[in-house]
Amino acid sequence: MKHHPLISAFFAIATVAVFQTAVAAPGHNGAGHHHDHSHGHGAAETAYGKPGDPAMPAREIEIKMVETDEGMAFIPSNITVAEGEQIRFSVANAGELDHEIVIATEEENNRHAEMMKNDPHMAHDEPNALRLSPGNNGSFVWQFTKAGIFDMSCLIPGHKEAGMTGSVSVK
Fold first, then answer.
1. What does 28-82 look like in DSSP terms, one character per residue?
2. CA angle 100–129–24, rounded 5-degree value
3. How far apart are CA 12 and CA 14, in angstroms?
C-alpha cells in the first residue's frame, strides 16, 4: 500500500525520534538529554576503575553529605583505598538540599560540572554517581583498579565551589 508523501515523511521522522530517544543519554535519565553524558561508564574500565559487583565482598565506606556554616561538605572528604579494592559507598544526605556524589578524574568531573550548569536537575544513571534528596540514603559499588588520586564531588552547580568535594587516593 502506498502512503501519501507527508505520511511517509512523518513515519520516517517518528522512527528516528523513537530511535534517538531509546539510545540517548545512557548516562542520564532526564528528559531532553540527547547526548551521552555517561563518560564511557558501564561495564568498561575507566581511568579510575570500574563498576563493582554487588554480589562480591566490598568494604563499606559511609559518606554524609551536609551543609555547614562554612559551606557544603562530604564527611569524610578524603578516602584511601587499595588498588583493586571494591568499595560499597553508603551515602546519606543529611542536608536540606539535593546533593550528589560523582567519582571520576578531576578533568571528567570538571567537564561534567560545566554541562550541569545548563541543566542543574540532570538525573544520573551512572555506576560511579548517586544523587539524593534531603534525608535519603543510597549506595553504589565501585572497584578501584588503578592507582592514583581521583575526584569525588557534588556537581550540582555551586556545590563543589561551596566545598562539597574531596578525593579518593588509590594506593
1. B--TT--S--STT-SSS-BTTBEE--TTS--EEEEEEEEEETTEEEEES-EEEE-
2. 110
3. 5
Q: How confident is the model at residue 120 (pLDDT cuts 50, 70, 90)?
A: confident
Confidence (pTM): 0.73
Q: What is the 3-state secondary structure (H, E, C) of 67-134?
A: EECCEEEEECCEEEECCCCEEEEEEEECCCCCEEEEEECHHHHHHHHHHHHHCCCCCECCCCEEEECC
Q: Which CATH architecture has domain 40-170?
A: Sandwich (2.60)
Distance of CA 39 to the CA centre of its chain: 9
Is 140 in a helix, a strand, or coil? Answer: strand
137-143 β-sheet, strand order: 50-51, 137-143, 86-93, 59-68, 71-75
Residue 142 phi, psi (nearest 5): -135, 140
Q: State the distance between the two ends of the chain, measured CA to CA, in whole angstroms.
A: 67
The alpha carbon of residue 169 and the mean position of all alpha carbons in its chain are separated, in whole angstroms, by 19
pLDDT exceeds 80 at position 124: no
